[in-house]
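Assess this one:
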Amino acid sequence: MRATIEEIPKITRNFARPARTRVFKGGRGSGKTRGLALRSALRVYQLAERGVEGVFLASREHLNSLDESSMEEIKAAIGSVPWLASYFDIGEKYVRTKNRRISYAFAGLRHNLDSIKSKARIIGNWTDEAESVSEVAWRKLVNTLREEGDGWIAENWISYNPESPESATHKRFVKSPAEDCIVTTVNWQDNPWFPSLLNAARLEDQRLRPETYEHVWEGEFLTLTDAQVFSGRYVVEEFEPEASWDGPYQGLDFGFAQDPTAAVRCYIHDRRLWIRHEAGSVRLELDGTAPHVKARISDFDRYVIRADSARPESISYLKRHGLPLIQAAEKWPGSVEDGVAFIKAFDKVVIHPDCEQTAREFRLYSHKVDKRSGDILPEIVDAHNHYIDATRYALAPMVRRRDAPMALFGTYAAQGRR
């Protein structure tokens, strides 16, 4: 059978040459995620037709549930091509060929890879959002992808938006790539189907948020500057809270279409703020909020939750549907700046590696920069702040207005404990 598939030309050119590793890096709107979802379905089809049996791995560094995986992208890509849709059996929690030769496995490289490897033959991998994958995880994965057959090898595909030249992903696959690795940069201007709505968002970022525009849209590294609010104020490290720590403190920020609904759980100890858990999703319906968050943060409903007071109707609904201890966080003119100042006053903010989106926001959250003079302005850009807002709400009882005489530390335990 011969068939024509439309795809981004740069993706086509990458796959025109043989390689064991294929890297696609770039900014938002490039279409690389949807393009590789479709390519994975084509790869699975081709191998299944050759009689190959096994699993094609769709992975991330951390994967707590299928909602956080690439499953929906893969389902959508398959559904967009009628003859692929008829070749696959797609269920609520699985995707496989109808001949049962190959199925997708959705896994976190950090915790799930060993169990999959022990059960099935891995015939290929695609890791999306790969910037934060650790070297330990890459070593484990690369050593796993050794399957090959007549005219095929198990390929490793990687897609991500670069943030740091020091990331394990950049060092391994771009700075010092193997000979059989092809690296392709794909950005919004390379996507023939770049939507006008997304272009409007791009132009707004270019005008209002120049300090992060190149990173978000052009795939450049995130340059650390004095404009970044939490530069040098946080670290990403593993830890587990102890019973003697103050907390937990829990916050929830509402979102929907473009912005995620975001929840966090954090603690205070030794003059440090410790952020241990996060949960969230874009387009999360209100009636799905409590189940979504409780599935990712255990006992979330047993402790006080402080949420955006601008949504009293949502707080009222959640109080009656799964989060009985939710309440509105107090706001006042300047409460954002006061909350940020409170967080910055800790000796350090420690973010657990499981909280990827929180760590990302702490990297991106920035002051406005005058586009003519380059001066850093006191106003904070209203972007990359949903998990940060949830953190501010969680700590709201301890935050004081700038003109309040109360000391920052010394009273928070009594005010913040349930």
Notes: The chain has two domains: 9-190, 234-401.
